[in-house]
Design goal:
57 residues; mainly alpha; 0% strand; rod-shaped
Length: 57
């Protein structure tokens, strides 16, 4: 969010001026891209197991 404010409001791109910020941005985008399908799959498995009729409770 701060990066977008600096880029759009002040025309300052932190990714081009700071190597650490560039690497953190790349890591975060990769992490969130990998987590989204994983969470969706785990939630689907959870719903499947909850709706199973072979529950011994």
């Amino acid at each position: 969010m701060l990066g977008l404010v600096l880029l759009n409001g002040f025309n300052v791109n932190l990714q081009n001026s700071n190597v650490i910020v560039c690497k953190l941005y790349f890591y975060a985008s990769f992490l969130f891209a990998a987590l989204s399908p994983t969470i969706l799959i785990l939630a689907s498995i959870d719903r499947l197991l909850i709706s199973s009729q072979n529950v011994d409770t």
